[in-house]
Amino acid sequence: MGPGRAVEGWGVLERAVDLARRGEAFVLATVVWREGPSSGQHGSRAIYTASGDIHGWIGGACAEPVFKREAVKTLEAGVPRLFALGARDRFGDLPQGTVAVEMSCQSEGALQIYLEPVMSMPHLVIIGDSPMAQTLSDLTTQLDWNVELVTGPEFSEGLLSERSIVVVATQGHGDEDLLLSALKATPAYIGVVASAKRGEAIRSFLQTQSIDSAQIDAIAIPVGLDLGSTTHKEMAVAILAELVQRRAAGEFSGAVTIDAPKPETVVDPICGMTVDAVPTNNPLVVGDETIYFCCSGCRAAFESQQGA
Predict the structure, then answer these.
(1) Nearest to 72, CA basis, from 58, 51, 55
(2) CB–CB of 143/123 below 8 Å?
(3) pLDDT in tens, 171-218
(4) CATH homologous superfamily of 123-248
(5) Cβ pair 56, 6 in contact under 8 A
């Protein structure tokens, strides 16, 4: 997290908004307390993505590996975390639930960093060009969901992933073929705007196409909460209400794929910090062993001890 990669202040937040709109999961870190000397400052921010990219700045060489490890844990758990970094006698009274990570490098001071996971927004693909489909698209966009409105001829399974939500709203125009195409991508949810009678016909057709019965049963036909007789705008509200309800129940959360590298970790023999066994962590070959240090100061102290 060197200065060359720093994205200051609002720039980090702008990057966060961009990542969220692109559906990428990440952790937003904010320094909420510090005691000098420390390169991290109050309000310093950084982003750690599921692919291992870092944007911004929260602290120096000793803070970086700890930040990365705690960020990965935060992504895996999907809940915010607060961790304190520094010498234990400098922490003071920590808030309940704070993860304390001791660090003996006094030059780093002490930090408390709040880690907030930002999971990808739902990806909704609406197939159709009716006023209802347009209204549903407009409403869902207001929730900052990642929404794509396409006509039947424009649709292909390549638009979908396993996290996608599909609403078929073509009023019977090629529903069966569209469903066959969508099912190939095994999306998280498929709903069809149709009557219950029409739904029975669609299910019967799918059963003749060697589609797994569990996949057929999972299709919501008709889609949306049952509000009785409704206008097209009210139907869009009913569909959105069901999707929001399912999302709140955790049906669309899915698992975050973390592609960030996970190098071997070792303990710095001087300060006791856990560090990554990578070339940037001051390696020192002693006999047949390679020892890694959180900073050049710890390496110099170790070499001094060896020479004493």
Answers:
(1) 51
(2) no
(3) 888 999 999 999 999 999 999 999 999 999 999 999 999 899 999 999
(4) NAD(P)-binding Rossmann-like Domain (3.40.50.720)
(5) yes
